[in-house]
Design a protein that fits this description.
Radius of gyration: 27 Å
CATH architecture of the largest domain: 3-Layer(aba) Sandwich
Largest sheet: 7 strands, parallel
Oligomer: single chain
Shape: elongated
Strand content: 5-15%
Number of domains: 2
Structural class: alpha/beta
Helix content: 40-55%
Strand order of the largest sheet: 3-2-1-6-4-7-5
Number of helices: 11
CATH topology of the largest domain: Alpha/beta knot
Number of strands: 7
Distance between the termini: 33 Å
């Protein structure tokens, strides 16, 4: 089974009415750092501009491919999931995620289509009307005494979390693709624990009068490890050898 490389092509960043062209360039740089490529600009004051190019520091391709539109509705028309970034939590009730949670939800939704991260104006953020177009808000839990991040810094934090979440998903897929055996069932794990208790008693490592503490620790250890069926087979074979016996996994499994 082949596992594709990291892909964030379905995640777009939408900037609302950006007043300073340097901020557009800085956002493009932050996006390229984290592997994002879709940049939408809703009615920027000045774009294209040399200051945007200067601040992009090599992310000129994102500026060249940026899509400029007149309204937020145009920027979101083909998106199936929208998150609005907000530095302040509004008095109106609205679902709010932290950056890590937000990244997970966006990647999950991106399996069905394009998703958008909407960044508000430098001074005033997103209006209530614009928030109504978002499925969720994301709030960066910064120092409450000084919580205002500039546009590029906020974008960097949020796109970093997207990249980390995507990398974690990719690693899980790679591990799953390499697995030769299925994970052990609970019944098989219970059989392993019972075998441990008997074998450790036989070799006088476990006191049968008080087995609970050791067995509890062994359960914690193997629960963390998430053993597959062959690993259970190997461990039971080792236990049988320690007992001076021969363990036939397949035969016992069929009985």
């Amino acid at each position: 089974m082949m596992v594709s490389e990291l892909d964030l092509s379905r995640v777009r960043v939408v900037l609302m009415h950006t007043s300073h062209p340097g901020n557009i360039g800085a956002v493009a740089r932050a996006m390229k750092n984290m592997g994002l490529s879709q940049l939408y600009l809703v009615k920027p004051d000045l774009f294209p501009h040399s200051m945007a190019t200067s601040r992009a520091s090599g992310a000129d391709d994102l500026l060249a491919s940026a899509i400029v539109v007149e309204t937020l509705d145009e920027a979101l028309a083909d998106c199936c999931f929208v998150v609005g970034a907000s530095a302040r939590l509004r008095s109106i009730s609205w679902p709010v995620h932290n950056p890590h949670e937000c990244a997970e939800r966006m990647l999950e939704a991106s399996e069905d289509g394009d998703v958008a991260l909407v960044m508000g104006r430098e001074q005033s953020g997103l209006s209530n009307e614009e928030l109504e177009r978002c499925n969720y808000l994301v709030n960066i839990p910064a120092n409450p005494e000084y919580s205002s991040l500039n546009l590029a810094a906020a974008t960097q934090v949020l796109t970093y979390e997207l990249r980390m979440a995507a990398l974690a998903r990719l690693e899980i897929k790679k591990v799953a693709a390499k697995k030769d055996y299925r994970l052990a069932t609970m019944a098989e794990m219970d059989g392993l624990y019972e075998h441990f208790e008997v074998a450790l008693t036989d070799i006088r490592f476990l006191n049968p009068a008080s087995p609970r503490k050791l067995m509890r620790r062994l359960r914690r250890l193997f629960n963390r490890a998430q053993l597959d069926e062959m690993e259970v087979n190997i461990l039971r074979g080792i236990l049988s050898a320690a007992q001076g016996q021969k363990y036939h996994y397949e035969k016992e499994d069929k009985s």
